[in-house]
Amino acid sequence: MTVLHSAGGHCALKFKLNSSSMKKLLVSLTMAACCLLPTVVLNSCANEDNPVQTQELIKSKLVGKWTIYYVEEGYDQDMVGTEWWYDADGSFTNVQGEHYTGTGTYEWDGDLLVMIINNMPWSAQVKEITDTEMIWYGPLTGKTIKLKRQIPVN
Fold first, then answer.
1. Which of 100, 102, 92, 104 is nearest to 134 (CA)?
2. Which helix H or strand E contains 132, and what residues bound it?
3. Tens of pLDDT, residues 116-154
4. What is the C-alpha separation between 150 and 85, in angstroms, rounded?
5. Are residues 72 and 146 in the same domain?
6. Structural domain span for residue 50
7. pLDDT in tens, 22-32
8. Predicted TM-score of the model (pTM)
9. Domains in the chain: how many in total?
10. Based on the domain organization, do 51 and 69 belong to the same domain?
């Protein structure tokens, strides 16, 4: 090993490798690359598939009867108790007490649930959906709404 100094005060190490140690180093690096390559390929393939599966899972979990149990302060508190019935065919019914019933269709645009209710467009960004709970964020209102699943529809 030789230490080299430059005019700027920097130093560098210079290693002398004979052909035997160079071969060992190259073999070790090649083996490491061969061992890591399948892991990298499998992980990248798995990551490509997950968003599609996740989006399909989210879409399938929407179907059923949901009831709003929480509305962020500053938003219409009368919405608590509102029922949303989502069918697999892309249609839904919205019942808010005895004084309002809306029907319409829904479709997905990424994580945005786009609904046409009584010929009026409305949307909610679905932040989370599980077997028992769904959390919406209203892009226009900036408010969060939480729903609980009541009855799954198959």
1. 92
2. none
3. 988 899 899 999 999 999 999 988 888 899 999 997 655
4. 10
5. yes
6. 2-56
7. 566 555 655 55
8. 0.59
9. 2
10. no
